[in-house]
Amino acid sequence: MTTLFTSHDDCLNHEIAPGHPENPDRLRVVNKVLAGDRFGDLEHFEAPMGTLEQVLLAHPDDYIKTIADARPSEGFVHLDADTVLSPGSWDAALRGVGAITDAIEKIVDRNFANAFVATRPPGHHAETRRAMGFCIFNNAAIGATYAREKLGLDRVAVVDFDVHHGNGTQDIFWDHKDLFYASTHQMPLYPGTGAYTETGVGNIFNAPLSPGADGVDFREAMNEVILPALDAFKPNLIIVSAGFDAHVRDPLANINLVEDDFVWITGKLLDAADRHAGGRLVSVLEGGYDLEALGSSVGEHVATLMSG
Q1: In what order do the strands lie in the sheet with 204-209?
Q2: For 3-307, which CATH superfamily applies?
Q3: Is 8 a residue of the active site?
Q4: 98-143 pLDDT, tens digit each
Q5: Which of 124, 125, 165, 301 is catalytic?
């Protein structure tokens, strides 16, 4: 079986004011890299449009209505200082929901070995009732809940290696013992959450990294905190919140990872999926704001997924 790659051009229409780091060029770079000869065996799919029923798995109706009502017919509407709606944002956000739920279905049906989902806006900062940090709907959390409630998987894990803590996923999972969230991230840094002491109902595992940390520190955090907890949880599906902004080149943080670190953790998560989940793993793009580093890191991540 091969690796699935899913995206949609609607996600390019989530327009952002000039100079914003989360801009359409991020997705263009990813698409260009994954169209290269190295990825000839990658199966490309257009993401379907997600449904409001799927969004409701992680966000209440009044929140969804607030976002829908805020959509501009032109220009920009700011949901917070960093999070913007433009005329194309609604469709882009729903494509992200459709992309991850469709990818999970295909993995559960054994049509593909694993999947990489590249859509924007990203999702892991979106809390139950709050858009923030460039994020509108929480794709990873929606996907995890969809897998449990619609596809019958009992235990779903999200492992997040974005340089920013996924406060939204943690918020949505907080009281749900059958949903697991683990994160490495720089601390202190936006959004200010992600301490070791934030544990939910024993299902949340944070391993914050100090500014200036490198691959040795990252691997230690994964080996000592997150990977053992993941093994103890024994997930039926692993979702990866794959942010590449911990790369040494990235302008928004101060962690010094390189491509080999992303290769290493991708391999470790594939091994965990093989042990516990029949290989079921879906990776979804979160951050990464230096275009060169994003392209090379995504390339190595997806190549590792393809190698199994």
Answers
A1: 43-46, 3-7, 114-117, 281-285, 237-242, 156-160, 179-186, 204-209
A2: Histone deacetylase domain (3.40.800.20)
A3: no
A4: 999 999 999 999 999 999 999 999 999 999 999 999 999 999 999 9
A5: 125
